[in-house]
Amino acid sequence: MDYGGVVPELASRAHQQNIIPVVHQAMQKAGVTADEIDAVAFTRGPGLLGSLMVGTSFAKGFAMAKNIPLIEVNHLQAHILAHFIDDLKNTYDHPEFPFLALLVSGGNSQIIVVKDHLEMEVIGETIDDAAGEAFDKCAKVMGLPYPGGPIIDRNAKQGNPHAFEFSRPKIQGLDYSFSGLKTSFLYFIRDKVKENPNFVQDNMNDLCASLQYTIVDILMNKVKRAARETGIKQVAIAGGVSANSGLQNALHEAASKYNWKVYVPQLGYSLDNAAMIAITGYFKYLKNEFVGQDTAPFARMTIK
Ligand code: KG4
Fold first, then answer.
1. Residues sharing a CB contact under 8 Å with residue 264, sequence separation 6 or more, in sequence order
2. Tens digit of pLDDT for each residue in 194-211?
3. Residue of the nearest CA to atom 16 in ligand 1?
4. 270 CA → ligand 1 middle, Å
5. H-run or E-run covering 40
6. pLDDT interval class at 18 (50, 70, 90)
7. Alpha-carbon distance 95 to 235, whole Å?
8. Nearest residue by C-alpha to atom 13 in ligand 1
9. How far is CA 43 from the centre of its chain?
10. Residue 201: what pLDDT?
11. In a mutational test of the pocket of ligand 1, which residue from 76, 77, 104, 135 has the highest number of ligand atoms less than 8 Å from its CB?
12. d(CA 210, CA 138)
């Protein structure tokens, strides 16, 4: 909050301080002892390298001490497989294969054909900023704290989505671009503030609603196109931005219009969480997909 974003070095130090108490607490809550654990899954990437190194090193040490297999997990794949989590209290409706996944987070905007738990094909992705970045950067322009996405969502509920119009990218195929929108939003606010220094405060809700409407519309247009081109009628959303109420409403609207079956993750499983890493580890465990002690984390990874 104080820095307007995540400071990598501070994040690594926080991971280092918290990993042992967090694992301890998780085992206590789950009611398992270290001896009952069959394998250790860890996030190999993508992400901030320092934080990934803490998790990878801990997992390696744990696996070696307990003589159990080590499973690497791709964070992006895990966001999608969050749709297969059942918890102790509830079971949920899971997508059937193949389905389309719109993965939208602070670092990614992708459309993926999910053919099986571990077989995914990216058919569209952002060529510059991610959708979450567009939310966060535009929020910053309006003087809102980080992360701005949830605040824009909240304000948008009280605003008019058609009060302002912002530029939309003209990108071929199923790819996305959000940097043009971000720049046009910045210039628009700068010009308006010159005329009225209170412009942002006076129009906060309408600005948020119009911006959210534009981002959601850009996202949904390509998803509709992907559904048309692939003939797939099951659509799941994943990643932090899947918590956005405007996106969820637009998805449900498209579902009734185009006869889709849609899946929205539980809030706790849409933002970054450990359960999604565990469920991915479970599917890999069933296929004996283990890695050795020589595995290293990667800051940049894509879905293969
Ligand atoms: O997947 P995630 O938790 O982690 C990273 O990608 O790091 O996604 C975080 C992103 C942030 O950009 C945040 O602003 C956005 O998800 N986000 C939202 C909402 N909740 C989180 N964006 C719009 N509306 C929301 N309700």
1. 236, 237, 242, 248, 251, 270
2. 999 999 999 999 999 999
3. 240
4. 9
5. strand 40-45
6. very high
7. 8
8. 149
9. 14
10. 97
11. 135
12. 12
The whole-model pTM stands at 0.94
d(CA 72, CA 27) in angstroms, rounded, equals: 20
**Cα(278)–Cα(71) distance, integer angstroms:** 10
Q: How far is the CA of 135 from the centre of ligand 1 (A)?
A: 8
What's the token pair of residue 132? 């979450």
How many angstroms separate the CA atoms of 171 and 189, rounded? 24
Question: In whole angstroms, how far apart are CA 142 and each of 137, 146, 203?
Answer: 9, 11, 10
Give CA–CA dist 176/125, Å, rounded.
6
Nearest protein CA to atom 1 of ligand 1, as residue: 240
- Using only C-alpha atoms, the chain has a radius of gyration, in whole angstroms, of 21
Residues in the chain, overall count: 304
Please state, in angstroms and rounded to a whole number, the distance separating the CA atoms of residues 141 and 189.
8
Residues 6+ apart with CB under 8 A from 292: 70
Distance 181 CA to ligand 1 centre (A): 18
Ligand 1 surroundings by CB, under 6 angstroms: 105-107, 132, 135-136, 147-150, 153, 239-241, 243-244, 271-272
Which atom, in ligand 1's list, is nearest to the CA of 47? 7
